[in-house]
Amino acid sequence: MPAPGYDDRRGSVWSKRGDPFGDEEGNEVKYRTMEWWQASMIMIAETISLGILSLPSVLAGVGMVPGIILIAGLGFLATYTGYTIGQFKMAYPHVHNMADAGEVMLGAFGREFFGAAQTIFLIFSMGSHILTFTIAFNAMTSHATCTIVWGVIAMIVLWIFTLPRTLKKVSYFSIASFISIVAAVLITMIGLGVDPKPNLHLDATIKTSFSQAFLSVTNIVFAYAGHVAFFSFISELKNPHDFPKALYLLQVVDTSMYLVVAIVVYRYAGADVASPALGSTSPVVKKVAYGIALPTIVIAGVIYGHVASKYIYVRLFRGTKHLSSKSFLSIGSWMAITLTLWVIAFIIAESIPNFNDLLSLISSLFASWFTYGLSGVFWLFLNYGKWFKGAKQSALALLNLCLVGIGAAIMGIGLYASGKAIHDDGGNGSWSCADNSS
């Protein structure tokens, strides 16, 4: 069914403003350069990163059967919601980020509210990569120096890799990222299979507190939390209509990997499985696994940093020559924006040093909406006035109303569960030199 803004006479989408990067002919910096497979590689690198490392602990928290159902079910919903984001972009080609989508639906207020939420979410995600970087280096070096020092090094390394301005350049890094995380989890699974934990006790279901069980749900939500950047990825595709191919490849790969890794690691590590999961193996294997996982830890963090910085950069220079030039102002502004965001991310990483707590907080506040709830809102907006015209349309309307409810429920209950977990931890490890890898 045609969305608002679709002009049947021209057979193309229409908006008051065109493509976010305008006519790029003759520009020094061109953005619309990605093939669909390159976009898919970036999406895989962004999505299959830290989230996968928390999933074995999900099965340990709620049991094998509920955990598998949740991972598969939320993966299916994430595929549908990603497709809806693509539909919204086709209806409004000028949309480059969640702020632009908010402006379409709610005007200036929506632009500012959605833009702030998107930026905060991405910065928190950047912080989770700095935190994981410190865990990795503490594990690899047997805590050779203060954890805060590793955090500063992480901030500098991630900032340097964020300096390229186009996603096509980042896409080449993303292939290394995917190989890295696959190799790291394979080494972890093989290491556990060769030397499994003694006296393993696995449960099909586990009786636990409501807040602890819901923390497991939020960790799965974070594993599918790539949707916030989808508008940016589509904007830099040569052919935006190829986005569904990139999306389907992403969802087949990530859901399959999530299930395999969660089941195998939990099977051989048992109820005491670590989070991140790479810490469940012997000291030697753990060092090797973290070393091989470093490209993923860095590159996936860089993608979050790039998207957050690009939102601010496009917001500042949209419609000016500086957006696509190599002037002192444009290069200097990009460097300053990226550095500022990584400094803030470093502060967050040092303030919330528990891996699962940080992921749960991010998922509850933001991923609940960006991955699930907002896509329901997008569909309802695109089809306003036509929700219940026919059986298929009525079913889709009910599905998308449910998605809005799911987003609200994950946010509300997840905030309670993650807040309780952070409170119970009592701030242990914040701004501390202590080893956080054990």
From TrEMBL:
Q: Which UniProt keywords apply?
A: Membrane, Transmembrane, Transmembrane helix
**Which sequence ranges are marked TM in the entry?**
59-80, 113-136, 142-163, 170-193, 213-234, 246-268, 288-307, 328-349, 361-382, 394-417
Membrane-topology annotation of the record: Multi-pass membrane protein
Query: Source organism's superkingdom?
Result: Eukaryota
The segment(s) forming the Amino acid transporter transmembrane domain are 33-417
Q: Where is this region: Disordered?
A: 1-21
| UniProt keyword Zinc-finger present | no
A GO MF term: L-amino acid transmembrane transporter activity
Query: Bias category Basic and acidic residues: which stretches?
Result: 1-20
Cellular component aspect of the GO annotation: membrane
Chief location of this protein within or outside the cell: membrane
Subcellular localization: Membrane
Q: Which Pfam families match?
A: Aa_trans
Which InterPro entries does the UniProt record give?
AA_transpt_TM
For this chain, the family text in UniProt reads: Belongs to the amino acid/polyamine transporter 2 family.
Matches recorded under PANTHER family: AMINO ACID TRANSPORTER, AMINO ACID TRANSPORTER (EUROFUNG)
The name on file for this protein is Amino acid transporter
- Give the source species: Aulographum hederae CBS 113979
